[in-house]
Amino acid sequence: MYLYSLSPSPPLPLATSVPPGGYDEYSAGSSSRAAGMNGSGPTKLVDPLEDPLPGVGTYEDFNTIDWVREKSKDRDRHREITNKSRESTVALLHSVSDAFSGWLLMLLVGLMAGSALAGGIDIAAHWMTDLKEGVCLIGFWFNHEHCCWTSNETTFQERDRCPQWKSWAELIAGTAQGPFAYIVNYLMYIFWALLFSFLAVTLVRAFAPYACGSGIPEIKTILSGFIIRGYLGKWTLIIKTITLVLAVSSGLSLGKEGPLVHVACCCANILCHLFTKYRKNEAKRREVLSAAAAVGVSVAFGAPIGGVLFSLEEVSYYFPLKTLWRSFFAALVAAFTLRSINPFGNSRLVLFYVEFHAPWHLVELAPFILLGIFGGLWGTLFIKANIAWCRMRKTTRLGHYPVIEVLLVTAVTALLAFPNSYTRMSGAELMSELFNDCSLLDSSQLCGYKQPVNTSETGVDNSLADRPAGPGLCTALWQLALALIFKILITVITFGMKVPSGLFIPSMAVGAIAGRLLGVGMEQLAYYNHDWLLFRGWCSPGADCITPGLYAMVGAAACLGGVTRMTVSLVVIMFELTGGLEYIVPLMAATMTSKWVADAFGREGIYEAHIRLNGYPFLEPKEEFEHSSLAVDVMRPRRGDPALAVLTQDSMTVGEVETLVESTHYSGFPVVISQESQRLVGFVLRRDLLISIDNARKRQDGIVSASLVVFTEHCPAQPPEAPPPLRLRGILDLSPFTVTDHTPMDITVDIFRKLGLRQCLVTHNGLLGIITKKDILKHMAQISNRDPDSILFN
Amino acid sequence: MYLYSLSPSPPLPLATSVPPGGYDEYSAGSSSRAAGMNGSGPTKLVDPLEDPLPGVGTYEDFNTIDWVREKSKDRDRHREITNKSRESTVALLHSVSDAFSGWLLMLLVGLMAGSALAGGIDIAAHWMTDLKEGVCLIGFWFNHEHCCWTSNETTFQERDRCPQWKSWAELIAGTAQGPFAYIVNYLMYIFWALLFSFLAVTLVRAFAPYACGSGIPEIKTILSGFIIRGYLGKWTLIIKTITLVLAVSSGLSLGKEGPLVHVACCCANILCHLFTKYRKNEAKRREVLSAAAAVGVSVAFGAPIGGVLFSLEEVSYYFPLKTLWRSFFAALVAAFTLRSINPFGNSRLVLFYVEFHAPWHLVELAPFILLGIFGGLWGTLFIKANIAWCRMRKTTRLGHYPVIEVLLVTAVTALLAFPNSYTRMSGAELMSELFNDCSLLDSSQLCGYKQPVNTSETGVDNSLADRPAGPGLCTALWQLALALIFKILITVITFGMKVPSGLFIPSMAVGAIAGRLLGVGMEQLAYYNHDWLLFRGWCSPGADCITPGLYAMVGAAACLGGVTRMTVSLVVIMFELTGGLEYIVPLMAATMTSKWVADAFGREGIYEAHIRLNGYPFLEPKEEFEHSSLAVDVMRPRRGDPALAVLTQDSMTVGEVETLVESTHYSGFPVVISQESQRLVGFVLRRDLLISIDNARKRQDGIVSASLVVFTEHCPAQPPEAPPPLRLRGILDLSPFTVTDHTPMDITVDIFRKLGLRQCLVTHNGLLGIITKKDILKHMAQISNRDPDSILFN
């Protein structure tokens, strides 16, 4: 004999197939998950396309969504549209347009992110960076390069020197030479840097506090189901775009790649409002945001496939295959839009596209792995130092003066950066210089080799062959070494300030400098020791055997990998930058080493560390839960705690329910048959409950505090003078997730992650307790000896 | 008050933190999921590294694994190793080697699949294909190209004509010209084709019946958790490798790409036996198999990234990020191994690597989309026709004569293919020819354009500019048209025969022919109508505006997309073949169109269609469950069926249990408190139960049919003369998955897919029924009006 708890209800139908017309009861139950009808009779089919009660089924700020409910809502909606489409042509067209709205949205996201934003940001930042050094006389809106193009008086060699472009010293002091001119330029450089950064930080503070930082930790959390209202809003978009340009131009040690992801997500979120399907469904919207993250990286690095893999690997939580395909589409659209805008004037997507010509040798894997170790150590140190600094900012008085902090850091950066040409140039330019393979015509200091004198003797006329370092290169190496130390120190305190700041470019710059230094070192070692066993056979005199640019690239990948712990996406992004399958192996070796070394000191990347620092409720999908605890160890109430706050299905009054809800802060309540039996009927959300009661009190006649709240299908018999009952079966989730008390926590955590739950009831033939995401995170914090109270939200 | 069902047990500890030493009871419960101890006391911690009872926790052939249990088992194992590693240095080393064994395995898989197999298969197939036409006098083991290289008497132009290479007519009849020589060659061609295919089909039938077909449908099913013993075994590997070479060489319309995936998976499966971690855990082994699928595609197309995405998109079921990274590693190793073997002598990974030089114009999107429509229609038609043919083979007498069928098809293929040079050459060579961009020196028939006479008049000396078709090209077009019809018809009956047969190359060939035809058509249209509005501005006389090779490539992608419904992976594979971001947009447009057109006629690709044809239990992760049924509509028992077969926790004897197990065919039984209350305690698997009882009867004293089977911690009081009870709590799963009867089926299906369940219990405050994967598949079949009895396995 089976047990039925809904005492007056008829036996459940155990029919093999769907009885004609006899489905309504269950359909109502299922679609009421979505729409949340108040007082709807059990046989009335609720139309999921209409919200009968505004607010029911939505979420509060700083709360986690229920993925299962959202996806179920979307399926109900889809089913409804499909069913209707058989009825009329208009409905059929509606169904088709609904199916294609996702693609249209992706197209729009790609176009908007690629053109208006990435292109605009690139052009504006380029112009403003040059403004720190001088101004164009033909028109102040031209940047240095453009100014000299327009002038037509320049040769190819001196394309960046032309009479129309005046440095500030020339304009103000009338001279371009001498110490006085240098000081004028220096001061003007600091002035502009301070002005830009002041504007940036004040704009952020005044209009959009969410616009600061890289935004990736928050986007990761949002994609996992958290709600931060306004984080992806129009103000954030506008202010972040403007201040990103200002911050990048101010010369601070930060990049635009991370913030571009945030900006692209803002675009996507705003465009979502054009389509009901995405506006009303938090889960569907997150699919679009995942694609937008791919778009952001795609325009930042000109790497559409790398962008999609970045989104898949690093930021996304729920990434169905359909989203993979759409992300790819959006990323491609964005990349092509950006290329047609051509912000760098070279029909390349990025400033540091590289082409190497010489192959690498197996022996070189040793220095590459060395770079990997350096990258891993740098990643670990950076994360630890940056988190310590950010924690200090959070807890001490330092955090109260963000403007002063930004101005101070800018002043220090500008003061130290100006004298060294490698720190004065922007991060992207620096990398472009470091990745560069020296050709004969190259006038760069890094290519200051001595010309070989004995080419005729050796019979080799390969002018690209390895050559001894000249004085130019030696100076460059010193400057690079200083730049390395400067970048390492300044990046730690820059990341996390109240301006938009990305981490990709500074991290990569550190690695690129280290790599170039090692590369030149290897090159010179090989030049002077051709007869060593190590070099014999592949690096004979006159051979072009070691490419320092490749070392720079490998170093950049290693350092970025150490900080972010990206793997596949990093290698693919780098592969798309070089375009050659050849160099994947060095990149892979360095990235793997870097990740292993960094993981040995702590498994979390910079983004996870910031998520933890901020106490967001984020269940890392990559980490395994290793402890052997059981659900019963984690659930609330604990032993000694007061009993779980539950509602009964048909014996509490509106007043009692209100008192219970008011006296607790839980976001949902299990509904049981009676306080005595504790047999589970369903689960009801606090917000839905409050809205429904509030609405009923206002609109429904006779609902008073003494009215009975009824979650069953049929009302219990009441005395005739009693007020009418308030029927709330519509907002009751009849299929809450349950696990038994003996379920190991590793399985429970897996269920939470994979299904995207926010709570789960623990049963043992009756309700025993509840586990929320916060409980799990607190339990995990406790296991790894961290403060469980650092988890702030649910 | 909470309800406890285990009547004599002490109250459950609701402790906040882990009580020291007080954990054992639960740990035993959790790790006994893994090890399955028989008769272990409740306080004894079971070592998950040792199997106390062989067979417990394993699966029968043609059954689905329990992903949750397997993953939990692996976590227990890992926890054990980690805990031990703190004790001694040896254990620490063991832990480190355990962590790196995954990488080592990947390296081995990459090396083995890349070298021994893919390289060997390429070289052997190349040689044997040439053997059909003639033999090398220097050494019969040289293929045509190699033979003429070695001879050194050949010029670059005539690299494939040299005196050392003799056609069969020259050898047998002494003449290379005339109708007699032609007939001799024709007959020899048919003879070799028949010999090769006869050998292939007899070897498959005699030694490894699983070696036939492409293997991808079965691998998809295996990766989703199904067990087919021997499918990935050593015999399958050996026989499939040999017969694949034979089948490809026989000239049948089939490719080696799909079977290469199968072969790579066999390698991986065999190598798994070297590592305990993978040998003993079905879930971990499937991670390796997913990576192996990526390796297969990586070596087939020289596309490591495309291979990984193929595995992710098309074949894998459970693909954690860790596997993504490892697959990428393995795919790269394989690609580089293959390249160092250099089977094609051009340091390229594939025969049809292409480089285009001319850009494409937006107007050309129209013909590309047209190709997409063609691809979609071809895909639909192919799937329908092939499935109908395969069903006929299954149900009629045709299936009883596989050898005759293969010989007949081979004879027809050889007979029709020989006279047409485009069908005579292998699929890969055909594609290489069709993708080719005509240069001036090209002697191929497809480049038989008339030389422009008026270059001096127009002042343009671009010899690559569009030219009118000459007689050579016209002949080629006729031959291609005939080849298209032939390929379309023969591929339908070839795929599914009892020889290894891939589908990629034949599908792509169909598309490539169609694309090339359309491309040449467009080119000639533009040549004769330069003044049309359509061509004005971008395709003026003398411009190199239309590349027929690109059309062939787009057509190939469209047709492959129509048949397999691949998206991202297809575009990335094609991108890796061309190496240019430019051509992604045409490829994407065609692939998207093709998928949409094909999906309009039926959502399943060829692999899913074959899975369904074979009745495998596969829950398609891409398809949404759209119906609004509830768990109660799907569960067993149905209304009117006999009650669910359940065990009670402490009131059934060994004899009763055996009778119950014997009289049913269920693969597991819920355990309840008593027949009267139906309160759920746990779930026990049939196999574990049988093995444990069998073992106890043999080894344990006093276990007779009258012994009580006890699933509780403490035995109930028994009369003193009663036989000792059989304690089976160790094999009881104390945390079976449950859903309520009101749970919508879309959510239930989602749970099944995401967690990889094989069964789920339906409760309503007590056990109500059970839903298995088979029940869900039957329900889905019923909804879409298919025969529910076509689902054969569970």
TrEMBL record, chains A, B:
SMART domains: CBS. The keyword Manganese does not apply. One of its GO terms (molecular function) is voltage-gated chloride channel activity. It comes from the Eukaryota. It is a multi-pass membrane protein. It is found in: Endosome membrane; Membrane. Residues 635-699, 731-788 form the CBS domain. Residues 14-41 are annotated as: Disordered. GO terms for cellular component: early endosome; endosome membrane; Golgi apparatus; plasma membrane; synaptic vesicle. Pfam families: CBS, Voltage_CLC. The chain crosses the membrane at residues 103-125, 189-211, 260-276, 288-312, 362-383, 403-422, 476-497, 503-521, 566-585. Keywords: CBS domain, Chloride, Endosome, Ion transport, Membrane, Transmembrane, Transmembrane helix, Transport. Gene3D superfamilies: 3.10.580.20, 3.90.1280.20, Clc chloride channel (1.10.3080.10). Belongs to the chloride channel (TC 2.A.49) family. This is Chloride channel protein.
